[in-house]
Design brief:
Elements lengths: L22 H24 L6 H7 L7 H4 L3 H23 L7 H17 L5 H8 L5 H16 L1 H10 L7 H13 L13 H12 L9
Helix pairs in contact: 1-2, 1-4, 1-6, 4-5, 4-6, 4-7, 5-8, 5-10, 8-9
Length: 219
């Protein structure tokens, strides 16, 4: 017997592209992000050792064992806080440098201003966690974060070298980068937007510490 072929109109069309995520899948992503944000906040406030998974779960309205559905351990959650924070910082820095400039002082100001945004803007909790809790990472996790840090800091090297070549930076570019990061990172200990100068003001002050001069048009 000859098989009867279905007409083309009867064959269901396959959806193009990736299938849409279900509500549960979207909620899972939201819960993961909420856990990372809550963990960053608590790790910064209480410290990694003093923060329990029960604390983190309670901060986002979950049962005490629920974080382990998303992360294998509290250490994995600590790594996620640092990794996602660094990736956010890299994206912010790339956006700040998206428009090229022939003025290296202008580019340095953008880098410092972007770094201040990372330190004091949305998602800022991960920086103190990364500065003070890295000892709690495994060797493999530390290597992963170190690679992201190298990517982040690599954007500074050509700018500082250019400034040194022009005579505007009176320091070795490598040492200058370390000193700039040390000085700017310490602002997490003292900067208060309600009591101190604006981030633009402290950016100008930071640039003035290292450069011989900063033209008004370099802003």
């Amino acid at each position: 017997m000859t098989a009867v072929l279905s007409s083309p109109a009867a064959v269901p069309k396959r959806p193009r592209g990736r299938p849409r995520k279900t509500l549960d899948e979207r909620d899972e992503g939201n819960r993961r992000r909420a856990l990372v944000r809550a963990a960053a906040r608590l790790f910064r406030r209480k410290g990694f050792d003093a923060t329990s998974t029960r604390d983190i779960a309670g901060a986002v309205g979950m049962h005490s064992g629920s974080p382990f559905y998303h992360f294998k351990s509290k250490g994995a959650l600590l790594y996620a806080v640092m990794e996602e924070g660094m990736r956010s910082a890299l994206a912010r820095q790339a956006a700040a440098l998206a428009t090229p400039s022939d003025d290296s002082a202008h580019m340095l100001r953008r880098l410092i201003r972007s770094h201040f945004d990372t330190l004091h803007g949305p998602g800022r909790d991960f920086i103190p966690v990364m500065l003070y809790e890295a000892r709690s990472l495994t060797a493999r996790q530390r290597a992963g974060i170190a690679q992201l840090q190298r990517e982040y800091e690599a954007a500074w090297t050509p700018v500082l070298r250019s400034l040194a070549a022009s005579g505007r930076l009176k320091a070795d570019p490598h040492l200058a980068r370390l000193l700039i990061f040390g000085a700017v990172n310490w602002s997490v200990q003292w900067f208060d937007a309600k009591k101190q100068a604006s981030l633009d003001d402290v950016t100008d002050a930071a640039v003035a510490l290292f450069l011989q001069e900063l033209r008004e048009d370099s802003r």
